[in-house]
Each structure stands twice: as structure tokens, then as C-alpha cells.
Amino acid sequence: MFFHKISKYSVIAHTQHNGLIFVLFFAFSYQIDTLAPIYLFMRIIFFIFFATSILSSAQNNYPQDYFSSPLEIPLVLSGTFAELRSTHLHAGLDIKTQQRTGLKVKASAHGFVSRIKISHFGYGKALYITHPNGYTTVYAHLQKFAPEIEAFIKKKQYEKESYEIELFPTAEALPIIKENLIAYSGNTGGSGGPHLHFEIRDNAERPINPMLFGIDIKDTTAPLIKSIYAYPLDDNSFVNKSNTKQKLSLIPLQNGDYVVKNIEAFGTIGFGVETNDRQDLAANSNGVYNIQTFINGRRNFELDFKRFSFTETKHVNGLIDYEHYTTKNKRIQKLFKKNNPLSIIKPYLNDGFIAIEDSTSSVYKIRVSDYKNNESWVTISIKGTKATVSKPEAKKTTPYFIQADQTVNLKEGKVSVDFYKNTFYDNFYLDFEVKNDTLKLHKDVVFAQKNFNITFDVSNYKPKDRDKLFIARLLGNNNFPAYTYTKRKGNLLSASTKTLGTYTLAIDTIKPSISPINFKDGQWLSKYRYLKIKIDDDLSGISNYRATVNGKWILMEYDYKTKTLTYDFNDEVINETKNNLKVIVTDNVGNNSTFEALFYRK
């Protein structure tokens, strides 16, 4: 802390807390004498201590020494809390595991296993531990569990004859001691590479940034500002004499901050930033911790990535410039709030909207910071200049105007689409066209916050073909027909989705393929630990599979990334010498294949 005497009656005291500088101003209307300096100093110390205590209690309300690191290696991140993902906010920390699986995962605190979920996708193998202080820690993408937990799960899997399972053990079933082994790190589910996904949730199941609990990550690097955009927000607003989004000229300074080449503007405008952060020891481009904006010294917007709820995370694509993301694969975070209920948005002045009048001068600042309070500032000088466009850009219209607050049904030929109330954030003109069995439903440039339904009437198809039809979204330059989960009711096929684009009917008459990986028919497998089989389907995709040995169900783990089924002989359910293996695989339209092989084992 430090202070400046600016007159004989006043002092400004500065104190720094979590990287933010707070200024306390004190004025005294007494005659300075020999006792005044001591009295003044005591008053300053008191107020600084009082203010700092309040700030500390307000910001450090999470236990700091309760949770320990879940790994025995230095923590290096490939993903940070509340990072922007394609359909959600990231709910935890992605901790690197040195590009390998099988690292010991330790319990971060005492508690009990309250939930176990194993799925082909998503978190893969995930473990949830509830703690006496009300918080729950989550460990995901695991390779396998500690022996006692593994035995508990496999017993239930064999009872249900299912690899995918979700369990909620009682508090007495699987007690956990802090720092004891609970699992091994892996790459299961939707993981893009070996790592441990780690979360801390409160008693309302809201994920909270684990760094707030003292989980320390080395970070000495300020966030990187990659680009800045300005948005005219109505028909009468302009930036640099244009009524459309403008990429601004970003100039880095030697001190690490940035300025933007001066702009001219008029009317209601907003800004967007493309930014990321990097921690030490890793080159990953991760999410930032906080973004604040100021107009003429007054804060007018904030994104605070401390905590959120799963019910709101679907609104992440309303936070970004969604069209920019789907067309250029870059996320611009909008620094103004428009019909978005995300709790990480902390609007201050006019929800981040900025009103620029003619013949005015304004200064707009953006502060981007990481958890360790490394920060980058952007300064934008704005000259208010009233502008008009001699030839305004023509607004594209169609016969189909979607009003966000109304239910809309569209139908043409044998195709219909149902949009429910508040499916979209804003009103817009929709492209809607049906040709034969293909539906053009706009482009994927408008984000839907709710699912809408697409229905095809297939009564004109022969009965033998109807069962092999599915609804597909056409992707890429080659218009690959990607399976969309399709329901059947009589002659109607329907799909529920949040993604606009081009949809069509596709037919799949080809059975899945099944082939052994590490054995041959009639082979002795006495010294083998695992039995591996590859399964694949070239169009609608795998729906389910079932494996038996001598008529008894066996647990085969499915890794969709490698298209591999794996059985572990340590399950000890095979105890005969001569064994008949039978695997049945079914795709999403009901085509199925059967593979049989004989193997021997002592």
C-alpha cells in the first residue's frame, strides 16, 4: 500500500487487492499541527485495513486449503474454467497428463462416491465425490477406477448387462479418504487427447472455478488480444461510415497493452473482442478469467467467469458472434448484452450498449485479465460524427419472417418444420425451401437456444425402404449425409435439433462391419489380457452392440474414437477351455451384423 499527500487537508491512499487498485480519499477539516500527521496516518491505516478486510471476505469466500491437487504431477492446463466451447461453457479444468494415460488420480478431499457415470461420449468414465462441506468434485475421462470402485461398478454393469451405466451409491457404500487413489487418468468419452477433467461444484450443482479454492496454476503471461470488432446496433448507427460490423485496426504497444486506430461513430454501437490466455508451461490457447469495459471512465459491462449453472450454459452461443464463428471458426465475445440470461454477464451501464452523439469525443477501454491478474488493456478513441450512407446495403428478405416470441409452423410438400416460442433470440428472415426430399433451412449462422422439429412424410416410399430411411444433415463441400437422431411414427420421420442448415432423407441398407483385431478364429488365448474387436458403420452409425461367450453376456468397452470393443479377461467370467464368442452390432436404422469365433483358454 502507499499514499500521496495532495494538500494539507487531503490524502489519497492506494491499496491493491487481487490486482485491482482501490483508491480511498480522505479529507480532514482540522488545522495541521504536530499531532496531525500521526492521527492522519492512523486514520489511513484503519480505513485501508477495513476496506481490504471487506474485499478479502467478499472475494475469498471459498475454502483455500480444503481441496488438494488430484494429480501428483505439476498442474499444466489444456483447458480453463468457463472456456467457450461449441455448445456450452467448460465446467472445469482440463489438466494435462503428459500425453499419456494411467496416471494416478487422487481424491481432493474426504467424502464419499455419490455418482458414477460411464458413457460412450461426453465425460466417458466419470466419478463424483461429495464432501462434508457441501461441495462435489468431479473427475472425468478416466481410464479405470481404483480396485474397490471398479469392482462395485462392474458388478452393476454385469447385473444390467450394459457398459453405459449411471449409479448413485449411498454415503456408506464407497467412503473416500483425502489423497487416496480413486482412479487412473484416461482418454474416454469425448476427450480429444489424454487429460483429466476436474470440477468443483456447489450444493446446487453449479460448477465453480477450482482456482478459487487454491488449486494453483503457474501463469505469468497476460491474455492475448487477437482482434477487436465494432457493431452498429440499429439501422441508424454507423462505425467509420458503415452500418455493418467493422474489424478495427489493433495496434500492440511495447508495454503489452493495445490501442485501436481512432474510429468515427454515431448512434448505438457495441464492441466485441477475440481473446485468449496462456498459462506457463503450455502453448494451449485457453479462456480468460474476466473482461471489463469502460466508457469515459465508467464501467459499462463485465464478463465474470467464476461460476455458472448447467441450465444456462446452452446460451454460450448467444454470447459470441455466432455467424462469425460458424463461417470463420473464430469466437468474438460480444461486450454487450442482448436477450441473453447468462449469469456470467454483469451489465453495468446500458448493458454494454454505447450511445455516440455527433460532435463528441469518447474513450472506450477493455480490460482482459486471467486468474493471476495478468491483464491486457485496449483503448479506443471514438469521435462522434453523424453519418449517412448514400446507397444503404439492401437487407435480404424472404417470405418467412421468424418472430422470436411466437410459435411458427412451416410446411411445404411432405416436409414441415416447427419452431417453438423463443427458439431464437431475435427476429430474422429465414430461408425455407423444399426440393424433392431435401430441405434448405437457412444457413447455420443463427443460433437456436431451443430444439426445433423437422418432419418428413415418407408414405411415398416402399414399405421395405421406409425402415432404412433417416434424416441427415448435409455437411461440407461434399454434402456428406450426417445422421441426425431420427424418430419413427407411422409414415412420419422426425428429428429434433438446434442447428439450421440443409437436411435430407438418406437410406442405409449396409450392415455394420465386425472384425477381430488381436486374435483369429480357433486360437488359444491363455496368455491374453484383452480381447479386441473393431466395429464400424459407414453411414447411419452404430446404435448398440451385444457380446456373449458361451451364451453369457460379457462386458466389452466401446471406444468410438478408435471403433474398438475391448473385453478384459480379468473380469473372470470366462472359465471354460472352449469358448464361443458371439458379437451382434446394430446400426441406427436397424441393420445388424453377427460375428462368431471360437477361442480356447486355460
Can you walk through the features of this model?
The structure is a single chain. The longest helix is centred in the N-terminal third of the chain and has 24 residues, at 36-59. This protein is mainly beta. The strands form nine sheets. Strands 16, 17, 18, 19, 20, 21, 22, 23, 24, 25 and 26 form an eleven-stranded mixed beta sheet that branches. Strand 14 (195-201) and strand 15 form a beta hairpin. The N and C termini lie far apart (75 Å). The protein is 9% helix and 42% strand. The chain contains five helices and 47 strands.
How would you classify the helix and strand content by structural class? mainly beta
The percentage of residues in β strands lies in 35-45%
Range of helix content: under 10%
Rg calc: 30 Å
If you average the pLDDT, what whole number results? 90
Measure the end-to-end span: 75 Å
Supply the number of helical segments.
5
